Recover the amino acids of this structure.
């Protein structure tokens, strides 16, 4: 788990107006809240209490420490008493990590028979958190506001989502994406501004010649290939032509050799994601299909045809969803099934679909591939599990990055697909194909997506807020009329926002 060495800091706003005893009580209550949050078993990342902040220098100190602490992925603030918000300005100005404002209160209910003015002055989060909230809004700082009692399971779930997103954000800040070759020639939507991506989203996109990978491939030993093919035999159902002694077994061995080389290469470069390009494979026997499928399962982001934006997004989604039920994969809109309200899209790719999205035991098969001019590649073939998920993409609109997410319902295919030599998922985009696909196309969405069963729109919303990028959500509430309006409003908003920076 990526989360085990990470922390979220908890800072309580107070002041000395009500005397030192009040701050001592606030401090004790804060400790109890943090202890309660950690012991609830619902949060994926440890909360560390950093004490009360009672003045501008104290606020500034803790925010600066958080910026410089690699283990800290974000800060939760809470105002127990009234905390005059000018004291937060300098700290917030410098703070460069995710912020969650927990609008809670120590006591759950009003103690009707005992409440007096002392109690009111000590327990006035309703008041203090509004003062704090004003300052954050006045400074135009994005943050997540979570409202409710800290013992409430719903409140803890909102915090947990933000924690996962914050951890993925931290992960992206030193993400290296290895691109073998360039973008597939002439493709528009997978291209984009890598410089802006590094400034805005944190990750670094590097180019390598495929020859650099070939050099690794040449050092892989036959013993290493034997061991990996043995592992394949444990995990997958081999097609007859792939079994030992059969015609295409040598192609399975070549796929294993490429996988070993690719994993080693990515480790040496400290990379978390990679792209391939079927047109740029000089010195490789076949397109790395099986390798890409298995590396996705290990958490590497992947994008085909040089699609580094989807590769990065898939890695981010994988980090967010660690330990949750439901996998994720790179996918591509391939072909339609028009059938009234049941109209659906068959998602697939030439080879590269992650086995994380199936509970089936994948079949290992070797078939010819019509493009790329290489030998027949190995791949895992399976059908995605039925269920609900989100397809997500990021496109470069020239003046901003736009994230588009579509809630989709994955179906069991109506019949077997005995001649389809690749993994696939059949889904209906919400609210239906007609509106879902039209909205996606109006938004300029890709044919590639990073798909997840585990995440909800809240994850993408938190991510877009932290990154400061546009988010468009397509789901059962979407109408084309409203969606077009949102596109127009966003166009003006981002144009003005850019001009004001
Ligand atoms: Mn593609």
């Amino acid at each position: 788990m990526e989360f085990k060495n990470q922390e979220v800091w908890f800072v309580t706003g107070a002041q000395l107006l009500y005397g030192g005893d009040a701050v001592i009580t606030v401090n004790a209550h804060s400790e109890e809240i943090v202890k309660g949050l950690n012991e609830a078993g619902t949060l994926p990342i440890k909360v560390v209490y950093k004490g009360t902040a009672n003045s501008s220098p104290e606020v500034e100190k803790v925010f600066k420490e958080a910026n410089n602490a690699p283990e800290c992925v974000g800060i939760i603030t809470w105002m127990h008493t009234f905390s005059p918000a000018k004291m937060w300005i300098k700290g917030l100005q410098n703070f460069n990590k995710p912020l969650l404002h927990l609008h809670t209160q120590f006591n759950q209910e009003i103690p009707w028979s005992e409440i007096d003015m002392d109690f009111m002055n000590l327990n006035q989060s309703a008041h203090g958190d509004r003062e704090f909230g004003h300052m954050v809004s006045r400074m135009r700082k994005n943050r997540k506001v979570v409202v409710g009692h800290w013992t409430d399971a719903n409140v803890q779930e909102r915090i947990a989502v933000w924690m996962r997103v914050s951890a993925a954000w931290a992960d992206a800040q030193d993400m290296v994406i290895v691109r073998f070759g360039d973008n597939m020639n002439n493709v528009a939507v997978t291209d984009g501004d890598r410089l802006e991506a590094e400034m805005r989203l944190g990750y670094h996109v590097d180019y390598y010649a495929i020859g650099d990978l070939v050099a690794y491939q040449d050092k892989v030993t036959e013993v290493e290939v034997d061991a990996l093919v043995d592992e394949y035999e444990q995990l997958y159902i081999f097609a007859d032509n792939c079994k030992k002694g059969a015609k295409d077994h040598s192609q399975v061995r070549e796929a294993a050799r490429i996988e070993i080389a690719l994993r080693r290469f990515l480790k040496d470069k400290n990379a978390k994601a990679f792209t391939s390009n079927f047109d740029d494979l000089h010195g490789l026997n076949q397109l790395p299909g099986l390798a890409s499928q298995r590396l996705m399962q290990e958490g590497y982001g992947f994008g085909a045809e040089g699609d580094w934006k989807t590769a990065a997004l898939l890695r981010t989604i994988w980090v967010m969803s660690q330990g949750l039920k439901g996998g994720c994969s790179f996918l591509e809109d391939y072909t339609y099934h028009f059938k009234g309200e049941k109209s659906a899209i068959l998602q697939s790719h030439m080879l590269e679909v992650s086995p994380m999205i199936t509970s089936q035991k994948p079949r290992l098969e070797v078939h010819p591939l019509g493009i790329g001019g290489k030998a027949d590649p190995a791949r895992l073939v399976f059908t995605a599990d039925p269920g609900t998920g989100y397809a997500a993409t990021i496109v470069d609109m020239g003046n901003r990055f736009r994230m588009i997410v579509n809630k989709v319902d994955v179906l069991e295919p109506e019949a077997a697909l005995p001649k389809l030599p690749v993994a696939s998922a059949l889904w209906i985009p919400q609210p239906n194909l007609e509106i879902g696909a039209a909205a996606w196309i109006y938004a300029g969405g890709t044919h590639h997506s990073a798909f997840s069963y585990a995440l909800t729109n809240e994850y993408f919303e938190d991510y877009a807020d932290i990154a400061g990028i546009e988010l468009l959500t397509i789901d059962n509430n979407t109408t084309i009329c409203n969606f077009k309006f949102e596109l127009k409003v966003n166009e003006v908003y981002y144009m003005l926002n850019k001009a004001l920076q």
User: Anything to note?
Assistant: The CA atoms of residues 13 and 79 lie 4 Å apart. The longest strand covers residues 401-411. Residues 176-500 form one domain.
